[in-house]
Amino acid sequence: MSIPESQLKDLMLRSMAGDEAAYRSLLDAIARLVRGHVGRLLSRARAGNTADAEDIVQDVLIAVHTRRHTYDAAYPVGAWVHAIARHKVIDHLRARARTGSSLPIDDLEDLLPAPEEAADAVWDVARVLDRLPPALRSPFAAVKLEGRSIAEAARTAGMSETALKVAIHRGMKRLSRIFGSGNGVA
């Protein structure tokens, strides 16, 4: 079940302000959010079972509880929670490897990121990029999101490669200013 980012962020901010009901709802929402994610990661690694997945979900909830003060409201809650879950799965798989249950360490690479998670991340990034003017957004998106080469993106945009690189750099600098300011306003 997908939980809207706006709902997660609202619950996170209210829970950080001391709203206990919001905090309970946040933990319920995160458990639902990460349960399927963890199951898919374990399945892809051909490791773990339902009990392992539930243990990892509990580890994620504990991590959220103990580290929520580090959450930066300028960033999506879902991405933060998915990153925690991914690290908890990797920790779980490493622990299994240490105890003799073999898992090639190279298989851990397969956990980063799942195609649907990548799509979610791209969607989040696309929302962030909407804050850039089109002249900076298009080159950045072509190279950084779509994976085009500088030469290909420059050719498509009718720009020189140097001009495209400058536009990407300026876009990154603008995003850094936007999110570095702490208020999300350029």
Automatic annotation (TrEMBL):
GO biological process: DNA-templated transcription initiation
Coiled coil (UniProt feature): none
Presence of keyword DNA-binding: yes
UniProt cross-references to InterPro entries, sorted A to Z: RNA_pol_sigma-70-like, RNA_pol_sigma-70_dom, RNA_pol_sigma70_r2, RNA_pol_sigma70_r4_t2, RNA_pol_sigma_r2, RNA_pol_sigma_r3/r4-like, WH-like_DNA-bd_sf
Any one GO molecular function term: DNA binding
Residue intervals of the RNA polymerase sigma factor 70 region 4 type domain: 125-175
Domain RNA polymerase sigma-70 region: 31-99
Membrane-spanning residues: none
Protein keywords: DNA-binding, Sigma factor, Transcription, Transcription regulation
UniProt record similarity statement: Belongs to the sigma-70 factor family. ECF subfamily.
Listed PANTHER family: ECF RNA POLYMERASE SIGMA FACTOR SIGD, RNA POLYMERASE ECF-TYPE SIGMA FACTO
NCBIfam families: PRK12539.1, sigma70-ECF
Protein name as catalogued: Sigma-70 family RNA polymerase sigma factor
Source organism of the structure: Prosthecodimorpha staleyi
Lineage of producing organism: Bacteria, Pseudomonadati, Pseudomonadota, Alphaproteobacteria, Hyphomicrobiales
